[in-house]
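Risk register update: the risk that structure generation would not scale has been downgraded. Supporting records follow, first protein first.
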Amino acid sequence: MIDVHNFRALALHLGFKADRPKAQNVLHKTYDDDGATIRIDFDNQCIDYPQAQGFKVNRADTCNFSSAENAVVLECVHRLLEKGYKPEHIELEPEWKLGHGGKSGRADILVRD
């Protein structure tokens, strides 16, 4: 299971690199089509998705190392961007109302066209 101790190994496996040789605690990967960059900060245990390029994050708790699910979301987003999906078409944790009871639903990742 992915946790804070092996999150770096996952990132390296996905092709993330250190920002600078002496700054090993921040890894990044830039995706060719539009220059969108995901950064992973191991000091602050956070994932910075490319919101400047239109990527939408509805809940900040998706952007940390607190849950193994967040590593799965990172890998899915990585694969979508590698396949050429645009950041502005990807949304994390969208919410919506279900029925008349006021309950709500939430998805991990929503991809729009």
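Supporting record for the second protein:
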Amino acid sequence: MSETVTVAYNAVTAKLVGASDEAQSKVRAALSYMQAGAEHTAAFKAHRWDGRSTFFDNATQTFPRGFVQYVHVALSKAGFQVRMVKKLLPEPLGPEDPVVDEFGNGDPRYDYQPETVRLLLRHGQMIAQIATGGGKSRIAQMAVARINRPTLFLTTRSVLMYQMAKKFKKMGKKVAILGDGSLQVSKEVTCAMTQSVAAWLKDPDPEKTSPGSEKYEKQRAKQKKMIEILSRFELVILEEAHEVSGESFFDIMRNCVNAHYRLALTATPFMKDDEEANMRLMASSGHVGIQVSEKLLIDRGILAKPYFKYIELRMPAAKLYRSTPWQRAVELGIVHYDYRNKCIAVEAMRAARYKLTTMILVGRKEHGALLEDVLTRAGMRVEFIQGSDDQDEREAALARLGRGDIDVLIGTNILDVGVDVPSVGVIVLAGGGKAEVALRQRIGRGLRAKKFGPNVAFVADFADTGNTHLNKHYKTRKALVESTPGFGENIVDDFDYAGMGFTRADAVC
């Protein structure tokens, strides 16, 4: 007869009860990870340590509650019977099928949104892996309305914090801002920045202040206050959750002792190079409970069907060599590469002839300013928004693009997340780079379903082959597109606007 292992847990911690050494060993192994930098330690080099640590505490037989499902699977596969002991989740206080906006809940294409909330009610804690454009913000609104208990909406970006605060207020919720210079808490919804909460929660620095001093006691008081505040929340929602896997975030979640409901929203979980950081996300918010891919959204018409092309650069960049170091290569082969910048302008002008707006995404402000100048001199109606612009200015520029008052909007990474981007015809990935998270987000900026004409979008990138580093990044970007269902089958040599039903602006009827 196989051993029965009892796992008891609350909102924060799980515990093995009376488990054998063999069961403990299985859990310890399942929750182990390679510690970053271990290979540089003397113990590792001397073969006294294999470089691995674990989230399982041998002394207390405990581990973070978010691993409960993961541990259950690991023990079951090893032949153990698993008995789960927990308190019942708090009853949701909101309507079973809440309506959170003017769109209602009648569109079956979006059935995964209420399903995500139903799964959250079943599991208590989970990661929802929803592709960019799938309505993560709307899922958050549904969860808040259905559970209807004190909620903490946690993000790393002020733009997201304020945007969601507006949406929750529009639902009739009382909303407070915790972060960006504000320290307010609501009994209904509090929108907060991870950095601000972590700053209040941290221990006093013994190198900067001594115990008993006024500064020391002031930080202790802040810490105590924040711990008390975090204990009030019963639902925590993590937006763009892949960004919040650091130690400070982990500390925040450990102090949300009454947050039995936890929902992490992200298109790209577990994308960190650090294995421990990836596991912290699961430790704090649970397993992946639902996955919604780009292909599903495209097939349902929620996203436009994307077409990708990679522009070959036939004129070499001055003074750029295969061996040029990366930072210098970006300057010469991207930012100040006149021929490449002219190709970007040509793409935008060609799109405008077919009455399509263009969004150009850059990595550096200097590049955006250069492109703004090139496009303006070419007669294009263009605006450039960057990190120094406030939220109202960004929203106004996006609205002008949506109305067609401008032909081109240039943006830095402030457009990657947390903004409602209107329907746009062409996305130009002008900044290079290789980060998968940023690339998926940037492509997603152009995939919003089109209100008029064919439901397609066009994404232009560059075959940056003139330098070893830039070429490697280009190949990484292209490989990601090629390997993504819904993307890879739509790589073309050029955009056939007329063949897809678009009419030239100067055509005679």
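The chain has a mean pLDDT of 91. On this basis the risk owner (M.S.) recommends closing the item.
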